[in-house]
Amino acid sequence: MASQLVFLLFLFNLCFAPFPLTSASQPIDECKAWLVQSIPTNMTDLTPVPGVLSTADVFRWLAGNTTRELDITAQYWEFIALPNDNRSGDYGYTDAQLGSFGANEGLQVYQSLQSAADRNVSIRILQNSGFYPDYDTESASLAAGRPNVQNVTLLLSNWYGSGIVHAKVWISDSKDIYIGSANNDWKSLTQVKELGIYLVNCSSVATKVEVYFNNLWKLAFLNSSLYTKTVWDQQWQIKRQVPCWSHFVPFQERCRSPLPHYVETPHVAGYPTLLDPNMFQLAINTPGYNNTSSQNNSCYLSFAPPEMLFTKYQADEQGWVDTIKSVGAGATVRINTMDWLGQSQYLSPTVFWSSLSSAISEVVFSKHATVKVIAAYWAYYLNGTDEYLKSLLYSNVLCSSSKYNNCAGKVEIKYYEVPGYNKTGPALSNGKSTGNIYPDFTRVNHAKYVVSDVRAHIATSNLIWDYFYTTAGVSFGTDNPSIISQLQEVFDADWNSPYAIPIVPL
To answer: Which domains does the chain have, with CATH numbers?
Structure first.
């Protein structure tokens, strides 16, 4: 116990002691990075990876250590459990049960946000409309009576016909930042498996993501009916609604972008793929894993949807594809996702989307790479997932389909089943026990990342067309060897656990 306390004090001092200042009293950009996880309770057979922080701690630290400004993007809010609301997936669980689920972690995060607001920290909340039954009650309560807290809802469906704010980002004082899969929900802290990255004193990253945040913020105040067009999208062979400055609008018909920061990029099939996307150099300390900062590492950011791009930052799809293709000859690519569909989910009509599956097949053939994929199996598993995943396995058949093929690569896929995934929902219905043992929308692997032998990509988007073309998402990537190695360890711990079940080919 004493050793644990010493380690926690060490981490706290390392993260939050005052940073040295230059002669001009400006912070020195000495970037520190930690991987961040949420691991559901009662997963005793999962081997822990040392040096990885918990999401709840990081959210509390970000709120508690902000002195000036805190920007947050959120799909929805439910840090406070709702066991007494019969419309909620938490309904009917006792205080003792909620305590064992770790619901208090969410309450503590929310209280940290309240304390930050009471310290007169300027807080900007950019969110989707939230979910039934409480929608944006918590964020509205945080803003009520506090002029320093702004609470804005952005409906991307007004701009694209579908789409949401799905990015999960916290930016503190333009220097500390969380990018990852965790929602502003107590269940995302203790009942859903999440992964993100926490960058401290890293204004080189935080200020760039702030530009993206400001673009989305501006969008929320614009009249979408004045800035959208319905176009024939040649890439996807459908009519769809897009912002009028979109790359999918013919050049002569485009409007001038009203966003604070924007870049004109010639239209190409799909995204405006960049041959030389912006890479910035950072010396990153990794205190949780082989702490080294003797040399700079190449890092990048990628964003979705493409109409939010600025300077030479790449679209998020390109970040995923380029990371898959970065794999060395005979090496391994590891992909972790909740959902996988080679199509759109919410668009009508449906479009076919093969970018990631094509990249996988290409490296299997050309580089003899092994590609390992973990996808979630849970109560809200998507129809069509099994067929699309098994189509990836057909690359193994094609490898040996011809005497002309010299293909030594392979694809391996496993479903991730968090214990109790099939026993989630309210505890009571019409006054009777349901037999559920966990609240609704829990017990699922929700992480989104890909890591090769030379590059790590940590994201906020599910692997479905909509998340790259109509939905707000952010990714951070790097060739930092410590981050790569630790992320591989996180993946391998899941892959080698009894919770990962191999998929049987068709």
So the answer is: 27-215 (3.30.870.10), 268-502 (3.30.870.10)
